[in-house]
Design a protein that fits this description.
By secondary structure, this protein is an alpha/beta fold. The chain folds into three domains: 28-100 and 296-370, Ubiquitin-like (UB roll) (Roll); 135-291, NADH-ubiquinone oxidoreductase 51kDa subunit (Rossmann fold); 385-450, no CATH class. Helix content is 26%, strand content 19%. It has helices at 133-142, 155-158, 183-190, 192-206, 220-233, 251-259, 279-291, 321-326, 385-389, 396-404, 408-413, 424-428, 435-450; strands at 25-26, 32-36, 46-47, 54-55, 60-63, 72-73, 78-87, 93-101, 169-174, 210-216, 238-242, 274-278, 297-303, 311-316, 337-341, 348-349, 363-368. Helix 4 (192-206) packs across helix 5 (220-233) and helix 4 packs across helix 7 (279-291). The longest helix is centred in the last third of the chain and has 16 residues, at 435-450. The chain binds iron/sulfur cluster (2 copies). The site of one iron/sulfur cluster (SF4) has 14 residues, from helix 9.
Length: 455
């Protein structure tokens, strides 16, 4: 398996115009939230609260001893109604803490209104110079921060280079190449100081001297705003505009595009001296360090031609998809609809709108009519379009079949696990074969056959 050194990418219709110019709105505080104890890659959390217990906003309600894991927190103040299995947007049922709010919701200190302060001074009680790398990692872990681009890998683990590894560069991923989604775009425009300060904190945690932000060239305005914010916080920051193509934001592709370094098969960015984080993750790190705010809310793009009023909303984790959609005017009446957690390339179709927004929910996309992928597919005609489209140099038509048929041995030896689930193969397939869904099934079967965890 080879990462292609040159990948043309694919060019789906982006539809960013539906929400790109819509400022982030705070959503209503929900009356009930469902907090899954597994919202990240790695070990699930154990509940640290009991049924009937009172909890306050930001209180830790689940944690795990395992290194690769991330605690979860109450996103509203109220009482634990139950701890039970509940549908998760990933498709499975997950042990979840259900909290009924007491109606006294508040928005926690998130730094609103302090953007004009001098970010290099101790204006909010925290100066980065006073924190050690270990303290930064510890704050990030305690705050439950994971990759907010959708990968949900625990960020504290990413900030812990293995012994003997030297990291010289931290890349922030501001590409947001998935169609429809504009949440990261708005975070960069509205909170550039938090993004840049978070990058500086990551650089300190991993000991890197260089920081780079990669943005697709359809977001030129973000590049200017971030560069301006950097002039007082991190003057040496490089903001690089990249060609708009899908999947420009895939971690290994981004490292190659920005630095010309190739991450070998089965290796991590650490192995080429790089750490990659999403721009919204960097902003969340700033909020955790400066305002002691755990990850209890996130920005979600609600978009698509099937929703009445597309928006970018800042929502509490655990609120149901149904409630979020209501705050966007609900669904349009006409036509068949498909609701996805995420965008149309990597998103997961939802049957039950009671599923909660989780840490990895970057968007809720409602497709309509002809945009919906047909359920029927045709036999493979061996055209090799999927092979050509795969940025990871895989054989999607083969590993797709292996996943569908549960052939875990061949799936593993044909590097099925290296699939980044970008969906390019399904997008180009003339026979409309749901290759990425089959590959996901293959990865799940492989994980369960080896007893590993993941979300
Ligand atoms: S989803 Fe398809 S195209 Fe994308 S990495 Fe996986 S196999 Fe390759
Ligand atoms: S693109 Fe579709 S039809 Fe062509 S080889 Fe791949 S799976 Fe087969």
């Amino acid at each position: 398996m080879l990462l292609k050194t040159f990948h043309r990418g694919v060019h789906p219709s982006y539809h960013k115009e539906l929400t790109r110019d819509k400022p982030i709105e705070p959503a209503a505080i929900p009356g009930r939230v469902v907090i899954p104890l597994w919202q990240h890659t790695g070990s699930p959390c154990e509940p640290t609260v009991k049924k009937g217990e009172d909890v306050t906003e930001g209180q830790k309600i689940g944690d795990a001893k395992s290194f690769v894991s991330s605690p979860v927190h109450a996103s509203i103040t109220g009482k634990v109604k139950d701890i039970t299995m509940h549908p998760h947007p990933g498709g499975a049922k997950v042990l979840s803490v259900i909290i009924d709010g007491d109606g006294r919701g508040t928005h926690p200190q998130d730094g609103s209104g302090v953007e004009k302060k001098d970010w290099n001074k101790d204006s909010d009680g925290v100066a980065l110079e006073k924190l050690t790398p270990e303290e930064i990692r510890s704050i990030v872990r305690d705050a439950g921060i994971v990759g907010l681009g959708g990968a949900t890998f625990p960020t504290s683990v990413k900030l812990t280079p293995p012994k003997g590894i030297l990291v010289d560069t931290v890349i922030l991923n501001g590409c947001e190449c998935e169609p429809y989604l504009t949440a990261d775009h708005r975070v960069m425009l509205e909170s550039p100081d938090k993004v840049v300060w978070g990058l500086k904190a990551i650089m300190k945690a991993v000991g890197a001297a260089r920081g780079v932000i990669g943005i697709e060239d359809n977001k030129e305005g973000c590049a200017m705003i971030l560069s301006k914010a950097a002039s007082s916080i991190l003057p040496e920051l490089k903001v690089v505009l990249l060609k708009t193509k899908y999947p420009q934001g895939a971690e290994k592709m981004l490292i190659h595009a920005l630095m010309g370094r190739k991450v070998p098969a089965g290796k991590l960015p650490f192995d080429v001296g790089v750490v990659v984080n999403n721009v919204a993750t960097a902003a969340a790190i700033t909020e955790a360090i400066r305002y002691k705010k755990p990850l209890i809310e996130r920005v979600v793009t609600v978009s698509g031609n099937g929703v009445r009023t597309p928006k970018n909303l800042r929502v509490r984790l655990g609120v149901s998809f149904a409630e979020v959609l209501i705050q966007c005017g609900g669904l349009v009446q006409e036509g068949e609809k498909e609701i996805l957690a995420g965008g149309p390339m990597m998103g997961i179709a939802q049957k039950d709108l009671d599923v909660p927004v989780v840490k990895g929910t970057s968007g809720i996309t409602v497709l309509r009519g002809g945009e919906i992928k047909p359920l029927r597919y045709e036999p493979c005609i061996r055209c090799a379009s999927c092979v050509e489209a795969c940025p990871m140099g895989l054989m999607p038509y083969r590993i797709g079949d292996m996943g569908r048929l549960g052939m875990t041995g061949p799936f593993k030896s044909w590097s099925g696990s290296a699939c980044i689930e970008c969906g390019c193969c399904s997008f180009v397939c003339p026979s409309k074969r749901p290759l990425v869904q089959w590959i996901r099934v293959g990865k799940m079967k492989l994980r369960s056959s080896s007893g590993a965890s993941g979300a």
